[in-house]
Every structure is written in structure tokens, then in C-alpha cells.
Amino acid sequence: MVHTGEQLSFTAEHGQHRLRALLSTALADGSAYGLAVPLDTHLRTRLSGYQMQANAIQGKWPSVDARRITRASLLHLHALQALDASQAGAQHRDIAVALFGADAVRMRWTADGELRAQVRHLLTRAEGFMRGGYLALAGVRQQHIDVPCSAPGDEPAR
């Protein structure tokens, strides 16, 4: 907050929203105020932002958006993390430790076990994304004929 004689300048932030205001020090609590906005072709697209600013000045901040974590989004995240680790030279067991925790790996890791199969599946899934499967995930039609699967994650295990 900066006080410059007759004006008070402040910036307030809430989540991704930011409000910058320059207010007269003559304003008292409950006083009416005006908002000057440029009248141009972009006015309609900025109206929701102006409404948010007006609400913020009155102390009504928008709720912070909490992204809903779905099983599919977690699966995609784990697949890409596994691929990054693999390309960096990590062994399958190390990838499992990073994704599922050291205790789970210590108790459930075997040469033909379920955790190792999950890591292999995640790597196969991520490699499918790399070969163009991300286009199907994004809803864009496949352009490449060398991608044998119809959806990412449906690739045969190696």
C-alpha cells in the first residue's frame, strides 16, 4: 500500500486474481465510488473482470478454484513421470519408489509382481503418448498410421 498525499494505491491478490486500485483518501467507509473503464471493442470481454474487482473492493473474493483430481488425470501424471524418470536412466524399481513409496516397494516388489507390472504399463502408456497418442487424449483425430492402438494405454504390454 502506497500513500501519496490525496491518493492511496494498493495491490491485492487472491489466488490467480489480482486487483490494483488507486483510491482517494477522501473516501470514507460506505462512500460511493466510480470506476472509469475504457469504452472500446473489448469492454464486453472485460466486464467479468470489472465485476470481480468491484466485489473484491467490497471484500467478496471469488472462491479459489480447486482442480478436481480424477483417476485418469493421476494415471496420465504417473505415466509421464515414469517416462521422464526412465529417460533419465532410472530403473523400474526406482520409478516405483518415486510413484508408490519406499514402503510399498519394500513390501510388494517382486520380479513378476503387480508393482513392476504397473510401472511397465505406465511406461508403455507414456510411450504411446509420445508416438502420437496424446492427440487422441486431446480429442484430435489421429493422423499417423504407425500408431497401432486406438487409445493411449491400450497398447500391448511388452
UniProtKB/TrEMBL annotation:
Any one Pfam family match given in the protein's UniProt record, by short name: RovC_DNA-bd
Domain T6SS Transcription factor RovC-like DNA binding residues, every copy: 37-138
Protein name, as recorded: DNA -binding domain-containing protein
Classification of source organism: Bacteria, Pseudomonadati, Pseudomonadota, Betaproteobacteria, Burkholderiales
